[in-house]
Specification:
Elements (H helix, E strand, L loop, with lengths): L10 E6 L6 H13 L8 E3 L5 H12 L5 E5 L6 H15 L2 H4 L2 E5 L8 H6 L5 E2 L20 E6 L2 H5 L3 H13 L9 E6 L10 E5 L3 E4 L3 H13 L15
Parallel strand pairs: 1-2, 1-3, 3-4, 6-7
Antiparallel strand pairs: 4-5, 6-8, 8-9
Helix pairs in contact: 7-8
Bound molecules: FE2/S2 (inorganic) cluster.
FE2/S2 (inorganic) cluster binds next to α6.
Length: 245
């Protein structure tokens, strides 16, 4: 038996990555079932692998007249441009302004399921899809940056166990202090999942040329930043294997 919804929506969808698999999903689903019931699990749209499943649910809801429909955006990396994009996709799916007015989006927090009821009832914080800001065509994030290098620091499970997490902060601070952080001629840094040579980690790779380093502590990070990116010379002691020439 489904309970009556305590709000004006015919359906509420919970949209974001990592909502179907993994520890975050387990916690989220457990709390959602406690706050609603088992049937709420059918309203989860996991975007880890893409958005096709979400569009399918939205199309089905429109076809079945399950409107108004509220999508709660639970992506922890959400941003204004992301919401604009999501709403513009929904706008196209809806087609006519009357349907666009019945597709609404709100920002939520998957780690705080207890706040979602209040969010659902707080209509002022819901955005419809009738008028959506056009996606920017020429902002900084649409240009290829002028960094010379991309550095990938593994924060996968085994590198994390080997001490990788605090190295991210150290890497960022050291590059910033050296004037090399995400600027022309500098270094763009990204955290990654497993890069595979786990037993030699924490793993840090540099492109170009595609070199693999083992950075075990902050001193290694300091050495790498100074010698590799400031002085421009190789750091053989930190290389996992000699570079191919
Ligand atoms: S977890 Fe870092 S390389 Fe596998």
């Amino acid at each position: 038996m489904t309970t009556a919804l305590p709000h004006p929506y015919s359906r509420v969808l919970y949209v974001g990555p990592d909502l179907q698999r993994g520890s975050f999903a387990e916690l989220f689903q457990r709390q959602l079932v406690a706050a609603r019931n088992e049937s709420a699990l059918a309203d989860i749209a996991d975007t880890t692998e893409g958005y096709d499943a979400l569009w399918q649910i939205v199309r089905a809801s429109i076809a079945a007249g399950q409107l108004p429909l509220l999508l709660i955006d639970l992506d922890p990396n959400s941003s204004s441009p992301y919401l604009d994009w999501l709403r513009s996709e929904l706008q196209q799916l809806a087609g006519d302004p009357a349907t666009q007015a019945q597709l609404l989006v709100a920002r939520g927090n998957a780690a705080a399921v207890e706040t979602l009821d209040a969010l659902i009832e707080h209509r002022e914080s819901h955005l419809d899809c009738v008028t959506v800001a056009p996606l920017p065509g020429a902002h900084a994030w649409s240009c290829i940056p002028e960094h010379d290098y991309r550095v990938l620091l593994c924060n996968g499970p085994r590198c994390t166990r080997r001490g990788a997490l605090p190295l991210w902060k150290a890497l960022r601070e050291q590059l910033k202090a050296a004037g090399k952080l995400e600027c022309a001629g500098g270094v763009h840094i990204t955290r990654t999942q497993c890069q595979f040579p786990c037993d030699q980690g924490p793993t840090l790779s540099v492109y170009p040329p595609g070199a693999w380093y083992q950075v075990q502590n902050e001193e290694d990070v300091r050495t790498l930043v100074q010698e590799r990116f400031v002085e421009g010379r190789e750091v053989p002691a930190l290389l996992m294997r000699p570079l191919l020439t």
